[in-house]
């Protein structure tokens, strides 16, 4: 059971590794092209907003809702039904997202104001720059959401490399935009924003031939009444609420960062990019691989295989993420200096970014467990419990931010403590949520295959309390 999963995980991990390496190169070239300051903060806010919605609708709620449904169609129905489902979902999702993108372009000033109130209140060039950039970056949501749809189709049919490699295209486009055009432009931030738009279009075009080879590429159709589309939408509603917790946290974090020293948004962004490297290569790649398998095991009522898959994934995450977290904590400064510390990225920027990276390291293991555990819920088409856990995490995180970080800034604590302290407490909240999610998900999904015979409830086909299983399994 674990050998095919390990093969797919290795393939996905390799493609994701290429994506993360080119992503770091992308961020390094962007940092060298525009440095850290008003332009970089404006671009990163404009870039975060479509990614905020992408994680909310596409990679979050939609992806986790669509894969279990299409896996069930693939297992229990014919090719024609799967093709009809893909056409209906792509047409319905695409239509909704096209309208959302249109509204986003028109309402760009209001959206920037929501994400950066301080800029809107004070006015000035930074607000205007962000609005101008957002009108180019917002349509990225439309393209990347359809990319997420077709990635789910490919993953359900055992093709993991192409979806994982797709992100490399964006990185290469942005590298060209930063090196060739932005460095010679009087408005480098706008050049990068246009690069985001172009990269989204190319990512979508890259995946279409692979979907066509499966015989599943059909003309998108507006079919909101189709049974499969309605099921995906029904599963998405609690998923959107759950995903929105993390995105609301991101929104509030951005608001807090814009109220701190100029450059705070950029310092936190670059630290986050370094933290995303091990998270993407190990945890997200593994979560991507196990979701179709878990969905298929649930559809075929193979409880033992479901449990064994989830347990194997948790053990592998523990093995890989733990040394990565220690490495980030111990070598934050040299890593930051080596990757970003050139040209307009000053030694002070290196210092501030390394503080934030050290803070992120405390949450890596917990967040990695969450990435692997949540697919266990979605594979069983249970999207409600992750919502409650996410709401708990949001309350803890924002409570700490508002009670400690902002007062510390107002009282004049040394500036280097702002981003580091802010994120240190933020990720401690996430790690607490991961522990809650881990205990409860193991109980609900019956993740520890080795204890099946020890629990009468498990023998009867019901999930037993898994608190002892968590301790024994880890």
Uncertain stretches of 5 or more adjacent residues: 416-474
* Coarse morphology: globular
Number of structurally distinct domains: 1
Which quaternary structure do these chains form? single chain
Characterize the main sheet: none
Strand content: under 5%
N- and C-termini, Cα separation: 20 Å
SSE-based structural type: mainly alpha
Portion of residues in helices? over 70%
Number of helices: 18
Radius of gyration equals 22 Å
The tally of beta strands, per DSSP, is 0
Give the helices and strands as they follow along the chain. Answer: HHHHHHHHHHHHHHHHHH
Mean pLDDT: 77
Describe the structure.
- This protein has 474 residues and is an all-alpha fold.
- It has one domain.
- 83% of the residues lie in helices and 0% in strands.
- It has helices at 2-34, 38-76, 79-106, 108-115, 117-122, 125-137, 140-156, 161-181, 188-213, 227-258, 264-299, 303-330, 332-340, 347-379, 385-410, 417-445, 456-459, 467-473.
- It starts with a helix and ends with a helix.
- Mean pLDDT is 77; it is low at 416-474.
Short description:
This protein has 474 residues and is mostly helical. 83% of the residues lie in helices and 0% in strands.
